[in-house]
Amino acid sequence: MASDDAIRQIRERIDLVELIGQYTPLKKTGRTYSGLSPFRTEKTPSFHVWPETQTWRDFGSNEGGDLFTFIMKVENLDFREALTLLAERAGVTLTQSPEKKTTSEAEERRERLLAMNEAAALFYQNLLRVHPKGQPGRAYLAKRGISDAIAEDFQLGYAPNEWEALTQYLRGRNHDLQEALSIGLLSTRDGSNGPYDRFRGRFIFPIRDRAGRVVGFGGRALADDQQPKYLNTPQSPLFDKSHLLYGIDRAAEAIRKQQEVVIVEGYVDALTAHQFGHRNVVATMGTALTEQQVGLVKKLTPRIVLALDADAAGQMAMLRAVDTLRNALGDDAEYVVDARGLVRAERRLSVQINVLTVPSGKDPDEFIRADPPAWPALVAAAVPVLDYVIRAAIASGDTKTGHGKTAIINQIAPLIPELADRVERDVYVSMVARLLGVGESYIESALRQRSKPATTSVAQAAPRTLGPTRTEYLLSLLIRYPAAMPDVLHALPEDVADIFTDAVHRIIWETLVALARDMEAYLDTEAVFERVPESVTDQVTRLLSYTEKQDNWYVGLVIPEASGIIRALLHEYARQRIAESSELVEDARASGDPEMMRFYQAEMMRLNEYLKLYPPPSSVFRDLRSPRA
Question: Quick one: 113-239 is in which CATH superfamily?
């Protein structure tokens, strides 16, 4: 709705002292203007305006901001309404940006595509339920022992072995077949007479996003000679299997209640678990576990259990998943003093990752059906990921030569330093040394050597591109990676929003906070654009452009970067407020007002605690995790 230029013109044309003076009389005291709060009744003035920065603060309520936040509060308006009012007052014309129409059209198209997927899911479901052509699907359902209740709950279906069954169904309901092609419901080939059904002669598993919307399908071949065995919807405007987990919409409530998620490798594994009452189970879809999939469950639970088949392929999949888990789950920081008295930050994985291996060569589906009560015990007996990785790496590696032992240690080394408990770390060092037949000092030396290039390579591989201000860069990072917000918010003061004196920045920050606290929300950039008021989407788009070079980052890298910036901003905020309060103390002293002098002195003492809690970034003892290092 509003361009950056329009907001800039409004700020240039309206003086904050003059604007606020229309609501409450202001008196110049030193470098500030003071008066009674326009928001509440008081006898002693505690409301101040700084003409140099065009900001205000109500010390009685500990609120402040710029001209937009003032008008929003005093007139009880949202940002769009305040923007319109101030634009009229300043004589600035607000124009609709061409991107808004494009955005609206894109949203309408997305809704049409989702509706088309829902129609297809209903078509497949009805064929499986009652149609004579659905008999092969019903036979597969019976063979796998999937109950009618689970089939209904997950809307399982069957695609007949015909070329145009779904095509004709969609055409008869006036759906656009070109759009059906774009989301993988239909296919086409050169020289053909038109589109045809992608899924034919297959058992259908509708795949839903976190909100329960059908975004794609998985099709299981029913004929022995049919290839591939599993066929998924191709990458489309709605479907990206690396960002989805099968059953997440049905499992989310149980995951949150049980504070644990079990991730299996197949559709039927997940369905069987749900059928026997284990509803905290989700499945990957033929891909190695991805960072985005981990992000789906991280906000629901701090405990992740990976269920693997008891074969070498499953073990290799786990080893490939370890780095994904470390990148996606983020970390906490523990500041320690080393033997030389130097301070450093050490990374700590912030969730518990366990691994279970299904015994007797079975998959989870077979195990649960054979002995349903044994599944909870198997999950409870899952071993920590590091135990699994150590034993798997040693079992599959060369333990007879020095070169082979070094390769194993290099594979294990990234995880050991991230253990929060030093005793636990020592236990694992001893375990590795014992299993490999080497001295513990050799393992310790290898860990130290391994840690050195890692931090350097991160800094070199992901240089940051600063925006015009540190605040804008911070918001840009969090708009691009909102999944970092829950960890970033941890241990921040309640009034952290006060560091955003710009109304637009504060609105964006508050949108990010609300999104992070919404347990039903999917934390991605698209969700930010959906939540933020339309009046500031232009500013969100501009901010996002500042971190284009950080598009290949992961959440675990964003968390310490954003947290460090916020700590620095809190420190600067406290210093500025102390300086302002100090001036007000002197003004109160000069005017012979001991009560206000004590009031502002108390405020300075409170802010001094901020300086202790949020010290400035050290130029000597840097946090080597950050790309700023």
Answer: DNA primase, catalytic core, N-terminal domain (3.90.980.10)
Among 295, 291, 252, residue whose Cα is nearest residue 484: 295
Interatomic CA distance for residues 307 and 262, integer angstroms? 7
Q: What is the rounded distance in angstroms from the CA atom of residue 265 to the CA atom of residue 309?
A: 8
Domain spanning 249-459, CATH architecture:
3-Layer(aba) Sandwich (3.40)
Percent of the chain whose pLDDT exceeds 90: 32
CB-CB contact of 11 with 502 (8 Å): no
What is the number of other CB atoms lying within 10 angstroms of the CB of residue 174? Answer: 6
Whole-Å CA distances, 181 to 105, 119, 188, 233, 361: 19, 15, 8, 11, 40
Residues 6+ apart with CB under 8 A from 599: 46, 59, 588
The answer to whether domain 4-90 has CATH 3.40.50.720 is no
Residue 620: per-residue pLDDT: 37
User: Tokens 């009685």 appear where?
Assistant: 60
Tokens 């375990």 belong to residue: 431
Q: What is the pLDDT of residues 471-480, one digit of tens each?
A: 998 999 999 9
Is the peptide bond preceding residue 228 cis, with omega within 30 degrees of 0? yes
CB distance 507 to 533 below 8 Å: yes
Report the pLDDT value the prediction gives residue 8, as an integer from 0 to 100: 81
pLDDT band at 451 (very low <50, low <70, confident <90, very high): low
User: What is the pairing mode between strands 230-232 and 214-221?
Assistant: antiparallel
Backbone angles phi, psi at 304, to 5 degrees: -120, 130
The topology under which CATH files domain 470-613 is DNAb Helicase; Chain A (1.10.860)
Say if CB 346 and CB 370 are below 8 A apart. Answer: no
Distance of CA 120 to the CA centre of its chain: 30
Q: Which tens digits make up the pLDDT trace of 143-173?
A: 999 999 999 999 999 999 999 999 999 999 9
β-strand partners of 505: none
Reply yes or no on whether the pLDDT at 558 is more than 70.
yes
Average pLDDT over residues 484-489: 90
Q: Is the pLDDT of residue 110 over 60?
A: yes
Rounded distance between C-alpha atoms, residue 559 and residue 347, angstroms: 11
Q: Taking phi first (over 0 means left), then psi (-120 to 50 degrees means alpha), and beta for anything else, what does residue 531 get?
A: alpha
Residue 316: per-residue pLDDT: 52
Beta bridge partners of 458: none
Identify the pLDDT of residue 466: 38
Q: How far apart are CA 264 and CA 252, in angstroms?
A: 15
Q: Each residue of 511-530: pLDDT tens digit?
A: 999 998 887 778 888 889 88
Domain edges within the chain: 4-90, 113-239, 249-459, 470-613
Q: Are 210 and 296 in contact (CB under 8 A)?
A: yes
